[in-house]
Amino acid sequence: MKIHTLISPVSVEDLYFAGKTTVVVDVLRATTTIVTAIANGAKEVIPVNTIGFAMKVSGNAFGGKTLLGGERNAKKIEGFPLGNSPLEYSEEIVKDKSIVLFTTNGTKAIVRAKYSENLFVCSFNNIESIARELVELNNDVEIVCAGSHGMFSLEDSVCAGCLIDRIEQYTDNISYSDASKCSAMLYDKYKENLLEMLKESEHGKLLMSNGFEKDLDVASRVDIHHIVPVYNSGVIKSKDKIKTNG
Ligand code: MLT
Q1: Ligand 1 pocket: which of 8, 10, 28 to mutate (most atoms <8 Å of CB)?
Q2: Which of 32, 44, 64, 211 lies deepest, with the highest CB count within 10 Å?
């Protein structure tokens, strides 16, 4: 299994992902929020790459049970009932709902990777489940860090390194791209204090200055959810729900 890591999806075209097994990571905060929403019983999350498209697919689509969520520059978008804080996506709010989500980097990364044969959503919160899934599939893997406006993000690369570390616990049949090796080294440096790492990161500082310090705490928790969110035909669902509900 060769593990590639992209520090941002912007360097590749959509078709780069055709036929690949891909994992998208946006620890602060899109993939943490998606994992939270799915774990709390949301029927599905529909990631979109423009605000206009978010408005179009909400409203009466999906049986009138949609909720619109997202952020621009870390702040809630005017007219959207939900922002991008995982704490807003409680069971009470999201159960059985279809959530249309727009975020600056995370949902765009997922949409960019839409042609992947297998496309998974990963955060620290569900990392063990994703690692096991990848080991079972035994394909080459693309880890896509959402990054920030095409640039490197510390927290996403550390999470990519954590995923690599978990995969290594199940198989030694792995080869690494240079970016994967760097991610593994970064994880090794920060693994004892992920919360401090998030607080040191540029985006973590921006979130704290906007009053979202608690989101960093949620995002730093490892393996609190045992779910594999899968993107297929425009929607993200839990793998178990796809099996049982079709
Ligand atoms: C993003 O997609 O850029 C992030 O999730 C931003 C955030 O809400 O913190």
Answers
A1: 28
A2: 32
